[in-house]
Structures are given as structure tokens and as C-alpha cells.
């Protein structure tokens, strides 16, 4: 296993749609998943998409810490060829919250996301998975799956005044951005 280099905003691999994985059990995919897990553990994030490690495949890994998801945590998971479907297709339940990204180190911003999504795809063994995600779980899935479509979170932001370096956003008075002091 190897710790992989993270692509940063501006790299072409982050701007292009990723290709579907034909065989999720192929040795190259298994190796990629193992390397992505080691990379995520090393850097301390909650999610990672294959394009972020310079692989243009539709693969994400993520975990949901209980402390960030109303006490409901999920262990590390892989999702291959994921498809997300908002449970509120008209966007009525969009929720704004702070996000950060390993490909935009040191930055944070308030991003609107669907409060709940249905997800489908394959797990690391190639078995079909289908479920619903809410709260932080839904946010993480949407963020990581955006990477598979060449979308970075600032592209989803409505108000770029709520985008900046974590330390600067933390220093803002509470009246200018509610939880900015807790971003990141």
C-alpha cells in the first residue's frame, strides 16, 4: 500500500468526469482502494474520491464520525460507480453548512446540499448497495460524488463571502457568519 499524492484545485483530473469502473474486483481497483484508505488515514479526512488521487475512476471512500452526524457513525466504506438521487428533488430541503476539501487545503466555505439522498452503487466486493443518507452522511456523499463529475465545492456555493482560509474564517466575528469560527 502507498500514500498517494492529493491533486489540488486547478489540476485537470479534478475538472473532468471520471470513468465508470468495469470490474470493481479487478486487482488495480483493489490496489487503488487500499492506497486510498491508507492515504485517507494518513491525512485525517472523512472522504476521498479517486480523481483526488489522480485516478479518473468513479470510486469514493468515506466514513461518518458519530460526533458529526447526530451520534450515528458509519465505518469506512467504498462506493464504486455511485449514483445519488436527492430525496427532495425540488431542492426544498437544501441545507447550507461548512465544508472543506483535501484538494483545497486550508480553505472552507458554506455549501448548500440536499438534506437527504438515496445512493446506489457497488461495494469493494462488487456487490450492489442501495440506501439512504441524511445529515452529514448525505453531505459527505454529495461532496465526494461531485469530484466524480469534475465539481469542487466552491462551484456549488451561493455566496463567496463565506469562502476563505480556515484561520481567517475562524477569526471573523460571530455576527458575520455564524459558525465560521467552527469551520474546518
Automatic annotation (TrEMBL):
Catalytic reaction(s) noted: N-terminal N-formyl-L-methionyl-[peptide] + H2O = N-terminal L-methionyl-[peptide] + formate
Keywords: Hydrolase, Iron, Metal-binding, Protein biosynthesis
Pfam family, one: Pep_deformylase
InterPro entries linked to this entry: Peptide_deformylase, Peptide_deformylase_sf
EC number: 3.5.1.88
An example Gene Ontology molecular-function term: peptide deformylase activity
Cofactor note: Binds 1 Fe(2+) ion.
CDD domains for the chain: Pep_deformylase
Acetylation among keywords: no
Cofactor(s) demanded: Fe(2+)
Catalytic residues (UniProt): 144
GO terms under biological process: translation
Residues involved in Fe cation binding: 101, 143, 147
Cross-referenced PANTHER family: PEPTIDE DEFORMYLASE, PEPTIDE DEFORMYLASE 1
Protein task: Removes the formyl group from the N-terminal Met of newly synthesized proteins. Requires at least a dipeptide for an efficient rate of reaction. N-terminal L-methionine is a prerequisite for activity but the enzyme has broad specificity at other positions.
HAMAP family in the record: Pep_deformylase (MF_00163)
Entry's family note: Belongs to the polypeptide deformylase family.
Name this protein carries in UniProt: Peptide deformylase
Species per Swiss-Prot/TrEMBL record: Roseospira navarrensis
Taxonomic lineage from the root: Bacteria, Pseudomonadati, Pseudomonadota, Alphaproteobacteria, Rhodospirillales
Recorded name of the encoding gene: def
Amino acid at each position: 500500500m502507498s500514500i498517494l499524492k492529493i491533486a489540488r484545485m486547478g489540476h485537470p483530473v479534478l475538472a473532468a468526469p471520471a470513468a465508470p469502473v468495469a470490474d470493481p474486483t479487478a486487482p488495480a481497483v483493489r490496489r487503488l482502494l487500499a492506497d486510498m484508505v491508507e492515504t485517507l488515514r494518513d491525512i485525517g479526512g472523512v472522504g476521498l474520491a479517486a480523481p483526488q488521487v489522480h485516478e479518473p475512476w468513479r470510486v469514493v471512500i468515506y466514513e461518518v464520525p458519530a460526533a458529526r452526524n447526530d451520534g450515528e457513525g458509519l465505518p469506512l466504506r467504498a462506493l464504486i460507480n455511485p449514483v445519488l438521487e436527492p430525496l427532495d428533488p425540488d431542492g426544498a430541503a437544501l441545507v447550507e453548512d461548512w465544508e472543506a476539501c483535501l484538494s483545497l487545503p486550508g480553505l472552507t466555505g458554506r455549501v448548500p446540499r440536499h438534506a437527504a439522498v438515496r445512493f446506489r452503487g457497488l461495494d469493494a466486493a462488487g456487490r450492489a448497495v442501495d440506501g439512504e443518507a441524511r445529515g452529514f452522511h448525505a453531505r459527505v456523499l454529495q461532496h465526494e460524488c461531485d469530484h466524480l463529475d469534475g465539481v469542487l465545492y466552491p462551484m456549488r456555493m451561493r455566496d463567496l463571502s463565506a469562502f476563505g482560509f480556515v484561520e481567517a474564517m475562524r477569526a471573523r466575528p460571530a455576527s458575520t457568519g455564524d459558525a465560521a469560527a467552527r469551520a474546518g
